[in-house]
Amino acid sequence: MPTRDPSSTALSLRRYGASRGSHAHEHFQVLVGLDGVLELEVEGRGRRVGAGEGWVVTPGERHDFESRTGSRCLVLDTTQDLWAQCAGRTPMAPQLLSLARFLARCVTQASPPAAALHHAPALLLEAWGPQVPNGRRRAIDWPALAAWAQARWHQPLSVADLAAVACLSPSQFAQRCRDEQGMGAMQWLRSQRLLQARQLRTGGMSVAETARRTGYRSPSALTAALRRN
């Protein structure tokens, strides 16, 4: 049973047998072998995906699958463009098979654990190793991330939530935040909340309504935060 999260992803367990013909799609398709061997042809190039091995099919690539003896794969369909940096190379994490088997059990449960599935894309991405072989890092869209957070002040947001949106592990995101924003991840999140509160107050909104919209527990809590900063 596939499941979707706010990052436009779907995780599923799939069985492969005879070829169904080549096709292409507009999203990335991440394959991790669980058992058997999957014969994969992408734009005329052959590839074998066995247990614990993986491959990334990029948007627009025509591909075909076949497994003569049957195989199972964990499949992540995602629009996260960070996966472009993993195309053409195999995952580096030796524990990938254990991770994939755990996630496969999750997606087949009657009530899948939401936390595990929410963080699955970031965990799989990390399993591919360094995002860019030459050491360069893709820029985080901080304004877009701030806008995502601003729409969710009514929820208890964590570093792991921010990391999942950025398609990074929590530790990677925390380090990037310190490097690029000069503060810890939770401090950055609080600064964004306070920034929006200041903007709403400057626009004439009442303290009570501003506190409600930005997730402060009370108008007095907002007032205290504004005075401290």
SSE layout and pairings?
Blueprint: E1 3-5, E2 9-16, E3 28-35, E4 38-42, E5 45-49, E6 54-57, E7 63-66, E8 71-78, H1 96-108, H2 114-127, H3 142-150, H4 159-165, H5 170-181, H6 185-202, H7 207-214, H8 219-228
Antiparallel strand pairs: 1-2, 2-8, 3-6, 3-8, 4-5, 4-7
How would you describe the overall organization of this protein?
This protein is α+β, with helices and mostly antiparallel strands and 229 residues long. The chain folds into two domains: 3-127, Jelly Rolls; 142-228, Arc Repressor Mutant, subunit A, CATH 1.10.10.60. The chain is built from eight helices and eight strands; from the N terminus they run E-E-E-E-E-E-E-E-H-H-H-H-H-H-H-H. The chain has helices spanning 96-108, 114-127, 142-150, 159-165, 170-181, 185-202, 207-214, 219-228, and strands at 3-5, 9-16, 28-35, 38-42, 45-49, 54-57, 63-66, 71-78. Strands 1-2-8-3-6 form a five-stranded antiparallel β-sheet. Strand 4 and strand 5 (45-49) form a beta hairpin. The longest helix is centred in the last third of the chain and has 18 residues, at 185-202. Residues 1-7 have low confidence and may be disordered.
* Morphology: elongated
Order of H and E elements: EEEEEEEEHHHHHHHH
Computed over alpha carbons, the radius of gyration is: 21 Å
**CATH superfamily heading of the largest domain:** Jelly Rolls
Number of helices: 8
Give the total of beta strands.
8
The CATH architecture classification of the largest domain is Sandwich
Specify the CATH class of the largest domain. Answer: Mainly Beta
Tell me the fraction of residues in β-strands, as a range: 15-25%
